Amino acid sequence: MAEVDFKQANESYAASFGDNSKLSIPPSKHLVVVTCMDARLHPEQFLGLNLGEAHIIRNAGGLAKESLRSIIISQRLLGTRDVLVIHHSDCGMLTFSDEQLRSKVINAHPGDTNVSEAVNDLQFGPFPDLDRSVKDDIAFLKNHPLVLKEGNITGWVYEVETGKIREVV
């Protein structure tokens, strides 16, 4: 188990919960943020967002395709319009290929055909070029028939070295 006393941390959080139970379900800024699961990223802080203002969707690499279901729910049922896609420097997704990760998993389970078949069916989505991956994600969202066109869809890179963001597209 992780080296955090989750129960104690939650007790402290709940003690100062205040009026948070009165927040509405739809985010007040009508904003969806898609970003990476990297533990060094705290999108609420580096974007100046408070609890209840945006939906934050996180996955490995901050990939739009993996976030599509959540974006559709957020837009169609909860009124969000703007989408920010934020990838980041020094991302682990820049460091491997699908084949490398498949080999690693298969080698950890020699002779297990269930594992081999399951991992061979997966696309992990690594990318060799950070800015290109942001542009590709924005193009995917702007061209997808289920993503609303009423808001802005923009792509950014968060620099883990400085804490700054820069707009890509």
State the end-to-end distance.
Answer: 40 Å
- Which percent bin holds the helix content? 25-40%
- Global shape: globular
> Secondary-structure element order, as H and E?
HEHEHEHHHEE
Strand percentage:
15-25%
Q: Poorly predicted ranges (pLDDT <50, ≥5 residues)?
A: none
| Number of helical stretches of at least 4 residues | 6
Radius of gyration in whole Å, from Cα? 18 Å
* Count of extended strands: 5
Mean pLDDT: 97
Could you give the order of strands across the largest sheet? 2-1-3-4-5
Structural class: alpha/beta
For the sheet with most strands, the description reads: 5 strands, mixed
Provide a quick synopsis of the model.
By secondary structure, the chain is of the alpha/beta class. Helices cover 37% and strands 17% of the residues.
Structure description:
The chain has 169 residues and is an alpha/beta fold. Helices cover 37% and strands 17% of the residues. The chain is built from 6 helices and 5 strands; from the N terminus they run H-E-H-E-H-E-H-H-H-E-E. It has helices at residues 6-15, 43-47, 64-78, 98-108, 113-120, 130-143, and strands at residues 31-36, 54-59, 82-88, 153-158, 165-167. The protein has a 5-stranded mixed beta sheet with strand order 2-1-3-4-5. A hairpin with a 6-residue loop joins strand 4 (153-158) and strand 5. The chain is globular and about 55 Å long. The mean pLDDT is 97.
Could you outline the blueprint of secondary structure elements for this entry?
Layout: H1 6-15, E1 31-36, H2 43-47, E2 54-59, H3 64-78, E3 82-88, H4 98-108, H5 113-120, H6 130-143, E4 153-158, E5 165-167
Parallel strand pairs: 1-2, 1-3, 3-4
Antiparallel strand pairs: 4-5
